[in-house]
Specification:
By secondary structure, the protein is of the alpha/beta class. The chain is about 25% helix and about 25% strand.
Length: about 220
């Protein structure tokens, strides 16, 4: 019998709330998601023959190359080909690319997810982090959905705390105010609705990390 996933330290689920999912399914949210599609497809195809992991806010009509696992936030779980909560049902250092598309929260819940992604990422692998830009006028379109946003420096610190090495420059993506698809990347977030941060898992981390126990794989709960 399936069991309910454990709550996060703050008593909230690890996945995305229903209000978040509804916004990303709205015309304003879809314009942003579609703006990021080409970059995500390139990320997943960048290491042929190696596995990837993609966590996003909603199901998307992208046909990624290679083999991997695509999951969407579903309240208390991550949903897709299987349903799971943290820890992710993946072995240590088993994927070459991780894409977190508006999936990481701020605070302790977000830190836990990034640590899990660092665990499953193989040395030399990359994490692509798409997050909302708090300086963009587009924030007025998501304000009622209680979506959080942070500046790049804070996300770099979270990535470094998980043992990853973030790149120095973020790239803005998506619309500024009008609801339209804009996939072009710019240097720095600017006023774009979102930005992309890349981070690498090096063979030797920059700072000592506590030893993570090996994860014993179990079968995920089949999606309904």
């Amino acid at each position: 019998m399936p069991t309910m996933p454990s709550p996060s330290p703050a008593g909230q689920p690890d996945g995305l709330s229903e209000r978040h999912r509804i916004w990303f399914g709205s015309p304003a949210g879809q314009a942003l998601v579609e703006s990021e599609s080409a970059g995500i497809q390139a990320a997943l195809a960048g290491r042929p023959g190696q596995a990837w992991l993609w966590l996003g806010p909603v199901a998307q009509a992208i046909d990624p190359q290679g083999h991997g696992l695509q999951l969407q936030g579903a309240g208390e779980t991550w949903d897709g080909p299987l349903r799971c909560a943290l820890p992710l049902p993946l072995a240590n250092e088993s994927v070459a690319t991780v894409v977190l598309q508006h999936a990481a929260r701020r605070g302790r819940r977000g830190a836990g997810l990034i640590e899990e992604c660092a665990r499953v990422l193989m040395p030399g692998g990359q994490l692509w982090l798409y997050v909302l830009n708090p300086l963009s006028p587009y924030r007025w379109r998501w304000q009622a959905s209680a979506l959080g946003a942070s500046e790049p420096l804070r996300w770099r610190r979270r990535l470094q705390a998980a043992g990853l090495h973030p790149q120095g420059m973020s790239q803005g993506v998506g619309p500024v105010w009008k609801i339209r698809v804009d996939p072009a990347l710019q240097q720095g977030p600017g006023l774009r609705a979102a930005y992309l941060l890349r981070a690498e898992k090096r063979v030797l981390p920059l700072t000592p990390l506590r030893q993570r126990p090996a994860l014993r794989l179990t079968e995920g709960v089949p999606a309904a």
